[in-house]
Amino acid sequence: MSLTLDLNNEEPPFAKYQGQDSFFGGSPPLSEGVGYLVVLGFGALFSILTTIIVFLNQYFGAKGEITSEHFNTAGRMIKTGLTASVIVSQWTWAATLLQSSNVAWAYGVSGPFWYASGATIQVLLFGVLAINLKKVAPSAHTVAEIVNARWGRSAHLTFLFFCFCANIIVTSMLLLGGAATVEALTGMDYRLASFLIPWGVILYTASGGLQATFLASYIHTVIIFAVLITMVFLVYIKFYSSDQIYDYLEATVNYNTSFCEAYFFDNDKNETFFEAGTFACGPVSGNKDGSYLTMLSGDGLMFGIINIVGNFGTVFVDQSYWQSAIAAKPSSAAKGYLLGGICWFAIPFSLATSLGLASTALMLPISSSEAGSGLVPPAVATELLGDAGAALILIMLFMAIVSTGSAESIAVSSLIAYDIYREYINPEATGQQILFVSRVVIVCFGLFMGCFSIVLFELGLNLGWVYLFMGVVIGSAVIPLWNMMTWTKASGTGAIIAAWSGLALALVGWIVAASVQSGDITVDTLGTNEVMLSGNLIAILSSGFIHYVYSAFIDPQDFDFDELDTKITLVEEDTRGLTAEEQDPVELRRAERWITRRGYVLTFVLIILWPVLSVPAGVFTRPYFAFWVLVAIAWGFGSAIVITVLPLAESSEDINKVLSGLVAAVTGIEMRQAEDPNDKLDDGEEEE
């Protein structure tokens, strides 16, 4: 059958893929050796690089000893730019790069928007908790430690469970998406990839702790933004324009079932392999006029709600975000989270608006199962740049995996070192013992997660399934933790009941919804949007309702937040970041007002105002889509500049100090430092 499109009488860009049921077709574009080079080579490279930077800073810069406090808190003196960079790095999962393009492939322009906005507001609102932490528990090492100090051991064990669930789920998604993509691009066995990827994280995290994680995160973030800008440039400037992509997207949804069945036809078996929803061809179910170019998408909105609810759990219950708040300077905590959230928005929004929409515009033969496994970005990049495109996506993905994986590793090590070892096994633990336990846990957790992800693969769970499921498991812990930091009446007993009841109700509702909708309970029926939405909403709403009722009417407390920090003790007298200057109550109140106003306003803009304003547009016109693309490009470029330059500008003095010390050590010539005018003797003052 001859396929033609009336687009300036040109042959359609997708005609060469007629009859293919897979873009990669079982034959990876890169050699297996490239897979090993990236997984092992980059891991070793960053381990060496970050270890050297930490050593140089320790020897020539801050000259501070790596105590257990410093290992797990980075000295509590991280500035705004680096805090923002770390937040971007931690929040850029494999899912951010892969799942965001999957929802663009499935729902059109609404997918990237709901992925980005639905996962940005949690970071913005967590800034409120971050500054509250600096006010009431500046000495804390973990969120579970704060729970223990306020609500006691029963609540401590409860929320420790939910924290570990969050860490395991996030790390599972990293490895599921990463290993599937490594296998598709290089042919490297996914089981081997799952086992080897954590080693790139283990080495430098165990060596340098949280500071090494932060330094590596900055480098990873810069590389991720560099690849993102490259891909946006290729799609909308070099190879195509917004008008061309618009025309192709319009053409894709105008094909009827007969055309799609003929296009996706297996000549050897003499049968079509096309089914509605399995390939990008024909109208989009649930979208206005079946178009990809509309925010009026039922499934897109449903995904957005799931995304919002589920991601509250993976921010508020994930120790790595509390750890970043602990590590930040009080003056930087609020601003760092706000800036990090705004810059992070660009990654899923700009990347998926380019690669995700291009996959459907070009009608690449990507099946729904391949899209769910995260293969949309590598397929489009390979189409545009060949092997070089595949390599860039592989590097970008590896950066996301190791940066978030490192944060999760140090988070788990802190929970075990402080909340299990110090609390229940050795209350008199020394700093050296805490440091040893932290490093051992980092290694063991990496090995455990490599094996656990293989088990998930064998169960048939992919990245998309786990991503939608996470809110069902950890959503019930969100509101009790928020109340713990902001509400004097919050009851510890109520928090325990709310968390466990919310989990139980969510699991029951999730399973019942699958049975009602499909009449059967399988991995597939449990993974539909409607079923996952039921479980996610029940988890967070039932828990919040139970905790409010119990705290307000059954067991109201009158907690004095001034007492909270007195119940948390340091292991060593390492008070960096805990001086009177950092704990100025006036400055902390000002910072709290600053982040509260801006966090709430931006949340309203991203999940209410922006979508509402796009409703009158209906199906986007060509100029409207061009403006939408312009926003995505500008946001991507602006975020890349800020997140790259600001940390360097803020740390210029420290960088100069390290470079001066290094030059002096190499050449033997000590560089002159600027004289401090206070060191000069006053006129008439005699030297003794």
Question: What keyword list fits this structure?
Answer:
disordered N terminus, two-stranded antiparallel ribbon, 72% helix, single chain, Hydantoin permease, 25 helices, mainly alpha, 688 residues
Biggest sheet strand line-up:
1-2
Total DSSP E strands: 2
Summarize model confidence as the mean pLDDT: 85
Low-confidence segments, ≥5 residues, pLDDT <50? 1-11, 673-688
Strand percent estimate: under 5%
CATH topology: Hydantoin permease
Shape: globular
Helix and strand content put the structural class at mainly alpha
- The secondary-structure element order is HHHHHHHHHHEEHHHHHHHHHHHHHHH
**Broad CATH class:** Mainly Alpha
Helix content estimate: over 70%
Major β-sheet annotation: 2 strands, antiparallel
Distance between the termini: 100 Å
The appropriate CATH architecture is: Orthogonal Bundle
Total domain count: 1
Please give the radius of gyration in angstroms.
26 Å
* SS summary, helix count: 25
